[in-house]
Amino acid sequence: MSSPRVSASEFDLLSIVRAVVGGDGSSVAWLLHRDRNMQPALCPQTHDLVQEMLAKGVMLKLCQLGGWRNTRSIRGNEVLRGRLWERHESLALTYTDFSLQLLVALTRESLEGTDALVFRSPSKQAPSIGDQLVACLALDAARESSCAEVVARAKPIRSAPLCWLMHADLLGQMGKPPAKIDFKSLLDGPGAVVLEALSDELARRWFAMEQGKSEVRNMADMEGIGLGQSRTLECFLPAVQQAGREDLALFVVQAAAKLHKARLSAQDFTSSLQKHKSMRERSAAMVGAAAFLDGLTPLLGWVQSKSSLRFFDDEYEAGQVFLEGWSSLGTLAYEELQSLAGELRSFSALEENQS
Amino acid sequence: MSRVYRIRVAESARRHIRVDDGFQVQLELLNILSPEQMSELLATELEGLGFERDGDRMHRNDEDGVQLEVDLENGTVTARLSAGEDVDLTVERTRGIEEERMAQGRARLEEDVKKELEREVDVARDKLAEATTELLEKKLRDLRKELDAASNRAIAAALKVKAKQMGQIQEISENAETGEITIKVQV
Questions:
Q1: pLDDT per residue as tens digits for the range B92-113
Q2: What are the residue boundaries of the structural domains of chain B, listed by start?
Q3: Using CB atoms within 10 A as the burial measure, which of A9, A23, A183, A317 is most buried?
């Protein structure tokens, strides 16, 4: 059987798809910085190949990012144990025109000198869970290829709630967050399964966002990172609580635990910030530096309510899953982090940042 | 050979420039009593410093133009300062322009003068912004001393209330210089 024949631009598209799902964005950096003439529609072979690469590649990536871990999750009042494919019978991820348009946009235009990625005919439908994963992986690839800003400014990318969970810092820097981010699609069905798989990865990323603050020089960037983080947590945590899936927010607890262990001081967060700016900008930057720490506030209330559940309550088992996750941080460490947040927003932190 | 004419273009403008700046910080108040009781003690101290109460917020407008607000619920202190001034600016430029390029040359010179005028406005705005920021930096230092002292007095009052709840107060000694307070309680 002969191999399918595709045009040169479609070959580049397939290379970009492989790099996006394979997590090797740097290998195609040179492809992302070129303009191409692409036909309005892909040939059927290319279309089928893209669908196949997404179906297999994204699922493999999900397993690599944390689906392989032997852990616990909640279904109703039941606690499930095992690896992702043992806890859930199936995970059906679909990829709509959103994914195709995103990948074609990455291929068609050079990302150098562009303000924001443009989808040729953006759909009014919300992206599917599969689409949101592709968007997150595309942002990862763009970050490795130094063209993340262009992708992060794209409206369709910013409409994907999973992108806010995975890249709150970048999206916050590249524009004002929406007034409300709707996380409902991620708290049930395939969305919740994906969040379970990504729990450790999300903890790693949110801890990295905090560590990264020590290298932020521009005050507007620090403010943006903080806005992205605070809007994401303000919308995500209440949604998770309403859905009775507080276990899906355990990545926040894990990130906080790592941060506490790292013993960062208030100066560590703001050591690189440039001086000689207006008081408003400095003040907003300090609020941004404290954003994740401030976002932890609702969690203590959850601990208190889960601790008061009795063993015969329906939600008891689920509550124990959350409390076990909480034990990696603990109330004392939580209070120390709250104290650190207070330090970042104090008179002395702002005075130290004066010219 | 075409003639060269020296053309002079002057542009004047009167602008009102305005800058706004401010900061927000968190007061540290130990929760010796309940948060509500601590807020009330702080409110009492702030009233003594000239703040006026409006529900859960306290306001003060200082003579230097700084507007202060303290949120008693979360301990946030906000300071705002607006400054404005009228500036009269004139920019004049002279350039030699060849006769056959007179129209374009003049148009370009006028555009350059307009841009220069806008740059002057920006410079004036930056100067005003710098002065405003300097004022706020000084305010930050003064306000910190003032509010730290108010917080300490509120904490001392809270300690006395707490001590009364624990038993009979036998002795209270306060060091006004260091802010130290010693309370002997018979439990």
A1: 999 999 989 899 999 999 999 9
A2: 4-151
A3: A183
